[in-house]
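User
Please review the sequence:
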Amino acid sequence: MSTAAMSAAPAGGTAPADGTTSPSGQTPTGTASPSPAHRLTGALAEARHLSFWAENAAPIGLVVLVVVFSVLSPTFLTVGNIQAMLVAAAILVILAVAQSFVITTGGIDLSISATMTIGAVGFGLAFQAGLSFWPSVLVAILASTVIGVVNGLLIALGKVTDFIATLGTLGVATGAALILTDGKPISVFSPELLRLTTGKLGFVGYPFVVAAVVGVVAWFVMFRTRYGLHVQAVGGSEEAAVANGVKASRVRIAVYVWAAALAGLASILLVARIGAAEPAINTNYLLNSIAAVVLGGVSLTGGRAKIVGPILGALLLTALTNGLTLLSVSQFYQPLAVGLVVVLAALLTRFQKR
C-alpha cells in the first residue's frame, strides 16, 4: 500500500471493503451506480482476461469441482457428504485464515502445523492432569501462542527471515511435542469434545460453525479496523507504512501471535476429530494452508488481503480430496492432484491486478 493510499484512509483507520459505492448509492465521483445490465456486460468483458481467472480461482475452481464430482459420483452432493466435508474443512479453514494475516504482511509461517500439534499436546496433558475441558482449552491456546510470540520476536526484532525463523520453530515445536508425550498419543474422552464432534447448528456441524465465526471475525479485523489497515500497509510497503506512523514491528509480532492462537483453537478441533492428542505433526495442514491462501488470491509478496478467498480455497482442497476418495482414486494420487491445482493457481497469480 502506498503512502498516498494510507493518507487517503478514513480518520478512523478502517479499510474500505470490496465495494466502493457510498451510502447514498453514488460512486465516489458522484455518478449513478451502473445498472445490472452494465455490470453483467462489464463482468463478461473482464472474464476475457486472465486477471479475472486469477482473482476468482477459488470460487471458479470450487464450482467446477462440484459439477464434475456430482456427475461422477451420485453421493457427492448428498446431505451427509456435504456435512462431512464442512466438518473436515473446519481445521483447514482456520489455519488458512491464520496464514492469510501472515502472508498479507509478506511473511510466511512454516510452523503452523507444529504449533497446532503443541496446542493439542498441551490440551491432552492438561486434561490428563485433571483440568476440566475449558481450562484445558486455555492451556492449548496459550501453548500455541508461545510459539507465535517466539516467531514474532525473532522476525520483527531479531531480523531473522520468516522462512528460517518459522522453520526453526517448526523443528523445536515438533521435538517438544514428542518429548512431552514420549512420542505416544494422549487419549482424551470428554463430553464437551463429543458434543463438538457430533453436534450441529441446524444443517452445519459445530466444527464448521467455529470456523465460520473465525472467518467473520477475521474479515472484520482485516477490513474494518485500524489494525487490519496496518497489516495491509506493512505488506504493501513497510517503508511507507513506517513513514505514516505504523509500528511495523508490532504489527509483524501481532500477526504471528494471532496465527498461533488460531492454530491453538484448531488443535481443539483436531483432538475432537481423532479423539486423542497426537504428537506427530501432519505436514499436509501446513502445505494446504498455504495452498488455500494462494488459491484464494492472496499475494505471496504481501499487501493483498483476502479472507473469503482462502476460506473458499480450503473448501476447494477439501472437496477435491473428498471427491477423489469417493471415486476410489488411490491416496497416492491425491497429493499429486492437490499439487497440480496449487501450481496452476500460483501461475495465475502472475496475472492478478496490482
